[in-house]
UniProtKB/TrEMBL annotation:
The chain crosses the membrane at residues 398-416, 436-457, 477-503, 509-533. This is Ankyrin repeat-containing domain, PGG domain protein. It comes from the Eukaryota. Keywords: Membrane, Transmembrane, Transmembrane helix. The keyword Transcription regulation does not apply. One of its GO terms (cellular component) is membrane.
């Protein structure tokens, strides 16, 4: 008789003595699948409906004979024994397996989410709380849309979780550092295209109306905050809920501002409007921090807070810096590079910020000095001189490419494929259509590269100050980029056309192959330059909508 006979029955009935006899003879059975569903003895023991004390004793004895990696074995549906214990609601078995293999959850985080979801739906309060506390220690990157959905279900099912300090701290910090989690996007391609179209012409709110799970969690926690009856790390938030003016903004809100989490700030202000009064330890409001980090989405909320903005705008920090001084200081380059590329466009964006804040603050603050005895204009000029130099250097570097293309195009015009007739001096293949394409493409390349060079020369010979970067220089740079691309593309067409002229009768496959090959660098060049071209286009024509947007996101206007 097979010595493993009755092994599964022993596990189902939690009969350790019978199971021990079998394991003494065949210890390797602890890691073998013994059912058609791929279950090991541990899977069966955990799911057994026997007396809970006997089942836990059986599992404990079984774990003593297993290696930690044996707990990673999945059955055919893809479940490990730990998740079965969680779904069943056995906290003791769950902890026994975790002690045996401390990193087991890192291998099956999604399965743990399944167990959390199952526990919530079954009303197993203790197991749901236990699982949530385990998941709470995960990195914020772990929290996918599905994880947030299940967390929201737990939050709705067990509101007492939300009133715990640990939950509030972790959840708010996680959401504050993750702006993308609060912004929903439509997975439909047509919807994405139409959204971009309407957004480009400023005909649609930048925030979709449809809520997501992360947003619902944020709103739920903010609304539950006043129910906290015990001292917490959020004591400095309590006055906000009482609508009182206080000094000292909660660090979590500042974190959201620093990360550019506009939606987080919007939802907080909707529930607690007087949060706009709060200042940090350096005497700066959330709008001062938004200016420092160049987050226009949060700055634009100034247009929606009414007369309160006057108090915010006149505020000066510990170094006596006004909001205009903060624009004059060097920003976080990483943030700027997320929006525009190239030194010239960075300089233009800085000028747009400076002009906007200059217009916004009271006139008497524009020329006031800080503790370093400098005005905002002096700070801006000193800190952005490097951008001016880099912008002009980039222009000189591009001139080298343009000059090279002019040289090649000019030489090609007099070195035609096939040569000339000895007597008439007319090109031999002048009657060929491909030769006509060759000459036209060469002419276009020479013309566009020459125009690009002339614009470059006008940039270098003109006295460009910082304010020329606002509109004049970006417009010239866009012309340069377009003409430079046309000249490169036309030069490639000229090269390909020459092969069609020379091999029109023999090796017809060769010019086709060459045409395909020369098209590759043109396509790559276009793909690489497209983001820069779009940045230039936006800098010229879309920058007027950067501040004071038409659509409101904080307090929407009521329809008549």
């Amino acid at each position: 008789m097979d010595p493993s006979f009755g092994f599964d029955l022993a596990a189902i009935s939690s009969d350790w003595e019978s199971a021990k006899v079998i394991l003494d003879k065949r210890p390797e059975l602890v890691r073998y699948a013994i059912t058609e569903g791929g279950d090991t003895i541990l899977h069966i023991a955990v799911s057994a409906e026997a007396d809970i004390i006997m089942a836990e004793m059986f599992v404990n004895n079984l774990l003593n004979r297993m290696k930690s990696e044996d707990l990673e074995i999945e059955n055919r549906p893809g479940d490990i024994a730990l998740i079965i214990a969680a779904s069943k609601g056995s906290i003791h078995m769950f902890e026994l397996m975790l002690r045996k293999h401390e990193t087991l959850l890192s291998i099956s985080s999604q399965q743990t989410l399944n167990a959390l979801n199952s526990s919530t739906e079954r009303g197993n309060h203790e197991m749901a709380l236990h699982l949530y506390n385990v998941l709470e220690r995960k990195s914020y990157k772990f929290w996918t849309d599905r994880a947030r959905y299940i967390a929201l279900k737990v939050l709705v099912a067990y509101p007492d979780i939300a009133t715990s300090t640990k939950f509030c701290k972790y959840s708010l910090i996680t959401l504050a550092r993750n702006p993308d989690a609060l912004n929903t996007t439509d997975s439909n391609m047509i919807s994405r295209i139409t959204d971009r179209f309407f957004a480009f012409f400023h005909m649609k709110n930048r925030f979709p109306e449809k809520d997501n799970e992360a947003l619902n969690i944020l709103i739920t926690i903010l609304k539950l905050y006043p129910r906290l009856n015990k001292p917490t790390i959020f004591d400095d938030l309590v006055p906000i809920f009482n609508e009182e003016m206080v000094v000292g903004i909660p660090q979590i809100v500042f974190t959201a501002v620093e990360y550019g989490n506009t939606r987080f700030v919007i939802e907080a202000l909707k529930i607690y409007p007087n949060m706009v009064w709060l200042l940090d330890n350096d005497n700066r409001s959330m709008f001062h921090i938004a200016v420092m980090h160049r987050h226009e989405g949060i700055y634009n909320l100034l247009y929606e807070i009414g007369s309160k903005k006057v108090v915010v705008l006149v505020q000066r920090d510990e170094m006596k810096n006004t909001m205009l001084h903060l624009v004059g200081k060097k920003p976080d380059k990483k943030q700027l590079l997320k929006t525009v590329s190239g030194a010239s466009l960075l300089m233009q964006r800085e000028l747009l910020w400076f002009k906007e804040v200059e217009r916004m603050i009271p006139p008497y603050l524009r020329y006031i000095k800080n503790t370093d005895d400098k005005t905002a204009y002096e700070l801006f000029s000193e800190n952005n001189q490097e951008l001016v130099s880099k912008g002009l250097k980039w222009t000189k570097d591009c001139m080298v490419v343009t000059t090279l293309i002019i040289t090649v195009a000019f030489a090609a015009a007099f070195t035609v494929p096939g040569g000339y007739h000895q007597v008439t001096g007319i090109p031999i293949f002048t009657h060929e259509a491909s030769f006509l394409v060759f000459m036209i493409a060469d002419g276009v390349s020479l013309f566009s590269s020459s125009m690009s060079l002339l614009v470059f020369l006008s940039i270098l010979t003109s006295p460009h100050g910082q304010h020329d970067f606002l509109y004049s220089l970006p417009k010239k740079l866009m012309i340069v980029l377009i003409t430079l691309f046309i000249s490169v593309a036309a030069m490639m067409v000229t090269f390909a056309a020459s092969f069609f002229v020379l091999y029109r009768n023999t090796h017809k496959w060769l010019p086709i192959l060459i045409a395909i090959l020369v098209a590759t660098p043109v396509i790559i060049f276009a793909a690489l330059q497209y983001p820069l071209l779009m940045d230039m286009f936006r800098s010229m024509y879309d920058s007027r909508y950067l501040f004071n947007p038409r659509r409101r996101v904080l307090y929407k206007r009521k329809k008549d």
